[in-house]
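User: Reviewer 2 asked us to show a designed sequence for the structure in our supplementary figure. I'm pasting the structure tokens here. Could you produce the per-position amino acids so we can include them in the response letter?
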């Protein structure tokens, strides 16, 4: 799998200092997009492609910190900047963990128009504890050219332990899959990971209070089997 360099841009970011710290930003064309978990970012005018760093700074300045509404939620947005990858093909991949298994969706027509091309999306269901084999994956990649079918099949079968993962799009760079835009969800079984607040989510005073207590006090819950905490 191909992974790219990236850097977050917030209201406190000094672009000149960032350029000194990350020289690659001035050496190639760039992509800038929201660092938030919601879809339709491109159609909302929040993604820009093939820019230089000066153009990125202008694009971000016009939008950074301003409240936007997506899916009924409102909130300010931050951005990330990453290298622009020239490409001709855009694929779509979505994997959703469900109670009895995983739904896997794939399309050769990924990108900003995925919803308009939803009839071209193939979906299979892989039950829990059933091997995800080439035979199982076959309906997803049946129409792909032979020269890329095997590589994309192995990519789809890669186990990354997300509860939800969507790549829209991913492409091929030197014959290897390269996610150009991805969003995912994890559960706390991943361990010591700090999860950001969902877009538009603001903690209530009670939640803030409990969060503050949690940061100050470390308690082994197994020592308190008879205590329950309820919030309203």
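Assistant: Here is a per-position design you can include in the supplement:
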């Amino acid at each position: 799998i191909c992974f790219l360099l990236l850097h977050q841009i917030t209201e406190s970011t000094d672009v000149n200092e960032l350029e000194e710290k990350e020289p690659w930003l001035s050496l190639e064309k760039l992509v800038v997009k929201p660092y938030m978990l919601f879809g339709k970012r491109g159609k909302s005018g929040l993604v820009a492609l093939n820019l230089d760093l000066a153009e990125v700074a202008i694009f971000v300045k016009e939008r950074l910190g301003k409240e936007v509404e997506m899916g009924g939620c409102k909130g300010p947005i931050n951005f990330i900047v990453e290298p622009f990858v020239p490409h001709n093909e855009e694929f779509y991949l979505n994997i959703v963990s469900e109670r009895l298994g995983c739904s896997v969706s794939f399309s050769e027509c990924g990108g900003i128009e995925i919803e308009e091309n939803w009839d071209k999306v193939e979906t299979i269901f892989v039950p829990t504890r059933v091997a995800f084999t080439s035979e199982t994956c076959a309906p997803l990649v049946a129409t792909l050219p032979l020269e890329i079918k095997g590589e994309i099949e192995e990519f789809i079968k890669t186990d990354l332990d997300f509860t939800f993962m969507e790549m829209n799009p991913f492409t091929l760079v030197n014959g290897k899959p390269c996610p150009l835009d991805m969003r995912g969800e994890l559960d706390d079984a991943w361990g010591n990971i700090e999860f950001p607040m969902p877009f538009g989510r603001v903690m209530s005073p009670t939640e803030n209070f409990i969060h503050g207590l949690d940061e100050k006090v470390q308690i082994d819950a197994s020592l308190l089997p008879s205590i329950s905490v309820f919030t309203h």
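For the response letter, you might also mention the following. DSSP finds five helices and twelve strands in the chain. Residues 7-83 form a domain with the Dna Ligase; domain 1 fold (CATH 3.30.1490.20).
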